[in-house]
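Same chain as my last thread, 269 residues:
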Amino acid sequence: MGVALLTAACDEQGDSASPFVRLERYASVVSPPSMSDEVVLLEAGSACVIDTYWYRVVCTDPGDESFMFGAEGEGPGEFTDPGGILRGPAGTIGVVDRRLDRLSMFSGSGGFLTSTPGIPSFLLASGPSAMGGTMVGSYYRLDLANGSSFVNAEIDTATGRIVWERTFPDEADVVDCSTPTPGGLPRQLGFGYHDESGGLLFVTCYGEFLVWYADRDAGEPAAIVRSTYVERYPTEEDVAASLRLLNSIPAGGFRPNLDEEQIRARPKV
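reply #2:
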């Protein structure tokens, strides 16, 4: 597995009004085999990934210099199931252990700093990110009586206590999607991207709109932006890959209710 770092540049004609940017490769390094595809970019330019098979974190800079930290175990700085990595405040690195429900913080050079037990495990599968002394993410609340929903939440990393959570409305109540969802089921504004000023950004309708709440407690979004989205449909190779993935799901596992024609008709994200 490899990690590529990209930088953004203006388009070749130098047209500042152009909505497009050109991505140029900044660096490319080889990362270890892993069950996790999360990458954290540090301010100094290093890229850090989880080596799940050896219970450690590997960080590599653009010059291909690497350092590693962590080991298997339940002690300080050790992991039993390192499932998430995030960039913390002041250049620190956070690692979430899903089996221990614990967040461990390390310095930018891999030195162990602190650990917080009791992090709600339901929040950990959403690619959480750190904001000062709290961690934000999303989870799926299963409620057979009142209907299930996605919940955005923020927790105190020192105590594991939920300090804020909210369910946002269905996409159809905010924007008019040109591409219907498979089966016609409503889609909720689910996994939001948190900014450092307390706002939330949602990518809706398979990327057709960006919905931004400047205040995460506001009833209405502050802005809705239509993206420069060009519909491209799956190729034969894409369809075959999707079918292989669906057919590989074991009996009893969650399998989306999709057939071959629905895969062909859904625009690529």
